[in-house]
Amino acid sequence: MDEAARWAADRLGCDGLQLRPVSGDASFRRYFRCDWRGRSLVLMDAPPEKEHSAPFVDIDRRLRRAGLNAPEILHFDLQLGFGLMQDFGDMLYRDLLREDNADDLFPGLFDILERFAAAVDTRGLPPYSAGSLQFELDLFPDWYLDRHRGRPLTPAERAEWTELCTRLIDSAQRQPQVFVHRDFHSCNLLQNGAAPGIIDFQDGVCGPLSYDLVSLLWDRYITWPRARLEAWMTAMHARYGLDCAPAEWIRQCDWMGLQRNLKIVGIFARLEHRDGKRGYLALVPRFYGYLRDVAARYPEFAALHRLLEDPRCAP
């Protein structure tokens, strides 16, 4: 922390800075606040041997060029992994969203999703490839089922898993490919003036249109009734001006949500068992419930539904 404070003070041309820790995330990045000329700034410490920060700087520029409220970067040293940027404060949408105000708050977030699709330059961004989607899906059997639950797939289930993955990946890749934040949810959105502040976008790619929408709707802290989910999906169908029928779009969203939520359950198990990061397993039951609900809606996923209903697999 001392090295980061000295670097920041040198860049800002002051004698010294008092750093105050800010809540971190699941990565190796750390964040601190400091005051400079009456303004609060955030100092990022992203160890370059652990975190590659060039994508963060690149995507920040893409988002700001598209008129989106990503933080202004004052200084960034990629070799050291230190960055100074605008402070969006602490008012997360996680703490704002409630059943009685979601219809007032979501339109502003839907505006962001529209702009992601229409205005963010995706040239040179990594594609959300079939290999990437498959790797994420396999986190579920590898880390959640096998490592965490001690319940590996049987050979027959492995064949069914392969078929499931093929369906989900094919559906994802048939969608329009646009800028995808990859973690667009209430913990990475802050109330910040007229437009929500967007953070934690460094893993952005060019990928399926529905991905960020399902990230937002299948939330980690509040479960929305199915009728509201479908109403919001239908609203985004109209906003995007899609050629397919609304029911087909809802299917695409459901299937994309299966891919993402299988990944999330696997990641939470990996954070516990590989990275020693506690607390994430407590979030698994909500996402497991999402998986059960969607798998039961589609005959194509009867095998997944049976697997999820196995008491040896349940959280």
Could you describe the 3D structure shown?
This protein has 315 residues and is α+β, with helices and mostly antiparallel strands. It folds into two domains: 2-86, Phosphorylase Kinase, domain 1; 93-309, Aminoglycoside phosphotransferase (APH), C-terminal lobe (Aminoglycoside 3'-phosphotransferase, Chain: A, domain 2). Helices cover 49% and strands 12% of the residues. A five-stranded antiparallel β-sheet has the order 1-2-3-5-4, with helices on one face. It has a two-stranded antiparallel ribbon with strand order 6-9. A hairpin with a 4-residue loop joins strand 4 and strand 5. Helix 8 crosses helix 10 (246-273). The chain is globular, with a radius of gyration of 20 Å.
Characteristic terms for this protein:
Phosphorylase Kinase, domain 1, 2 domains, 12 helices, two-stranded antiparallel ribbon, 315 residues, alpha+beta, globular, five-stranded antiparallel β-sheet, Aminoglycoside 3'-phosphotransferase, Chain: A, domain 2
Provide a brief overview of the structure.
The protein is α+β, with helices and mostly antiparallel strands. It has 12 helices and 9 strands.
